[in-house]
Design a protein that fits this description.
alpha+beta; Jelly Rolls; six-stranded antiparallel sheet; 11 helices
Length: about 625
């Protein structure tokens, strides 16, 4: 039993050291932790077959892949380092909430090659590090406008690019549950006006790219505008008709793209329009949807998002467009024609199920790294830690009980063996160990014996039955009375043996159930966090699920040693109890036998069962 408890303590001491040491090539010693982030363009990942070059990638952090431990509360100490381990990369933190355990970060990824894996390191854990989040540095100069819609409700969106093309117009509501963080809510009456800016102008037959994530409440019957840019009878319009996306170019003549399947209500859809010198292409979810042979007109007036200001007098044949009713997120305008490969990767990587980015282990600078067990530990939620803490307390209590009970029953068993040896030597002098002159020495030698305590009680009951002349008068009824007194002492000795054993039964039966409770709650929180982050790939789910299962492991870690210890102690206790029952029967039987012999020979009881003559 002692070896079992010692092994359990060794396991408890070894668990924190189960992680592997971090790589020696540490970027900066001021940062305590780092996480490997792999960009996979192979056929096992995003299956990208064309070079992407430079593009912003969405890094989703949530309870399933990051625990927000050791990082600054606003993420100011986060740094991204390229695969060479030396080159810092630009990034912008769109949102960072360590309380909810959710963050969205845009990473400026450079030189993304097709069919390759590239590892980027995210460093954190430096309380003195200043914030370096910058949208202007993250989005290349050809992005003329980027709205994340992360502002407070009622505030106009702010441009993340260096051009600072802030929207005009108030009353726009932002909601949670966007494709990345918050999203803009268009109620069918609200629209945004973009500022008159040289960066937002379109040149005749020039390049242009529009992209946004949209979610319609229901399929609209009336034509609806997402983007409108008009000037002197010429226009570029992007919208929905019958729920199907379209693009319209009003140059010398009106040209509208054909439409296909309408969008699904209540579902996020990526819509993009790319214009080259002689062609305008419409993409839905990164796939070609429609196109038209047309060149963009020159436009220098302010554009609008979600609708347009209707002219006081319109031509009888003019189409009346309704304002957009639904949600919009991640609106981007570029003054060049973005390649299809980039549009496609944007649509797939920002969607809920992305195989482009996977998250690796967290490592600690000290070499006391996390490894696989560290990933699990850092993914454990607060509620699971509460359950695990209770289980650890239960384990310590059960081990303390097993240790003390094992020591006690060993002492009793050893003392009982010594007592039996002394008792066998008494012969007919049944009360020899109860002599007043011997009791002090006997108690020092046999005081830990439960059999001696039974013997002492029985001997006292015998000596209480002396008459006025010191003779022992034992009737048949007295023998049964002596047995009853010894039986009551035996019950109390059994109670001593069983004392605190209930703690082991609680650990055996309650430990696994408490662990299961922690696992169920942990799984619920993991799925809730993943739903909030919008990322449901296996790399997002696995750490949270494995961390939730840690509570079940902890419950079994409590129950299994307690089960072994309980069965061991129960067997030892039964052996001690059996010895006590046999001794009571033997003592009373021998007492009755000596009593009958005394009656038959008419000898003095004291001379028969008292001290040796």
């Amino acid at each position: 039993m002692r070896y079992l408890i010692f092994a359990c303590l060794l396991c408890l001491a070894w668990l924190p050291r189960a992680a592997s040491a971090a790589d020696a090539s540490w970027w900066n010693d001021d940062w305590s932790y780092r996480k490997a982030i792999t960009i996979d363009t192979t056929n096992k990942g995003a299956n990208v077959t064309q070079a992407l070059g430079r593009m912003p990638l969405l890094i989703r952090l949530h309870a399933g892949n990051f625990q927000f431990d050791g990082v600054a509360k606003d993420g100011a100490d986060i740094r991204f380092i390229a695969a060479d381990g030396k080159t810092p990369l630009n990034y912008q933190i769109e949102s960072f909430d360590p309380v909810l355990g959710v963050a969205q970060i845009w990473l400026d990824a450079t030189d993304l090659a097709p069919s390759a894996q590239q590892t980027v390191w995210m460093y954190y854990g430096n309380a003195k590090a200043p914030a370096q989040s910058s949208g202007a540095a993250t989005f290349d100069p050809d992005y003329s406008l980027v709205y994340h819609f992360g502002e407070a409700a009622g505030s106009p969106p702010k441009d993340a690019t260096a051009y600072a093309n802030q929207a005009q117009g108030a009353g726009l509501r932002t909601i949670d549950g966007g494709i990345a963080g918050k999203a803009a809510r268009f109620d069918g009456a609200t629209m945004l006006t973009l500022p008159a800016s040289a960066s937002l102008n379109t040149a005749a037959a020039g390049g242009f790219t529009f992209s946004a994530w949209i979610k319609v409440d229901s399929v609209p019957n009336a034509p609806t505008l997402l983007y409108a840019h008009r000037q002197d009878g010429k226009a570029l319009l992007i919208g929905l008709t019958g729920g199907a996306p379209f693009v319209e170019v009003d140059g010398d003549q009106v040209q509208r793209s054909s439409t296909g399947e309408p969008l699904k209500a209540g579902q996020w859809t990526h819509v993009a329009v790319v214009a080259t010198a002689d062609k305008v292409m419409l993409y839905v979810n990164g796939q070609s949807y429609a196109s038209l042979a047309a060149a963009l007109p020159a436009l220098t007036t302010p554009a609008t998002i979600g609708g347009e200001v209707q002219a006081a007098t319109a031509a009888p044949t003019a189409v009346t467009f309704a304002n957009f009713l639904g949600d919009m997120d991640e609106l981007r305008l570029s003054r060049i024609a973005r390649p299809l490969a980039l549009i496609s990767v944007d649509a797939t990587s920002q969607a809920a199920e992305s195989k482009l980015i996977s998250y690796g282990e967290d490592e600690k600078k000290s070499g006391f790294g996390f490894g696989y067990f560290g990933i699990i530990v850092k993914s454990v939620t607060v509620d699971a830690w509460v359950v695990i803490s209770i289980l650890i307390l239960m384990a310590l209590i059960s081990w303390w009980v097993m240790f003390n009970k094992a020591r006690y029953v060993s002492q009793v068993s050893s003392a009982n063996e010594r007592f039996i040896d002394r008792f066998r030597d008494l012969g007919t002098n049944l009360l020899g160990l109860a002599d007043a002159g011997e009791q002090a020495n006997v108690r020092r030698e046999l005081g830990g014996s439960s059999l001696y305590r039974l013997y002492e009680v029985g001997a006292k009951e015998v000596w209480r039955r002396r008459d006025g002349q010191g003779r022992l008068i034992i009737a048949s009824e007295s023998i049964e009375a002596i047995r009853a007194v010894m039986d009551s002492t035996l019950v109390r000795e059994n109670q001593k043996l069983s004392r605190s054993m209930v703690m082991l039964t609680i650990a055996i039966s309650g430990g696994p159930f408490l662990g299961l409770l922690g696992t169920v709650v942990g799984v619920m929180i993991t799925f809730a966090a993943i739903a909030a982050a919008g990322d449901v790939n296996i790399n997002a789910i696995a750490p949270g699920i494995s961390a939730a299962l840690l509570a079940t492991v902890a419950g079994l870690f409590v129950a299994i040693p307690a089960l072994f210890g309980y069965n061991y102690l129960l067997t030892r206790n039964k052996a001690v109890t059996a010895n006590m029952q046999v001794f009571v029967d033997e003592f009373v039987t021998r007492l009755a036998e000596l009593h009958r012999e005394a009656d038959q020979s008419t000898l003095d009881n004291k001379s028969v069962i008292g001290p040796a003559r």
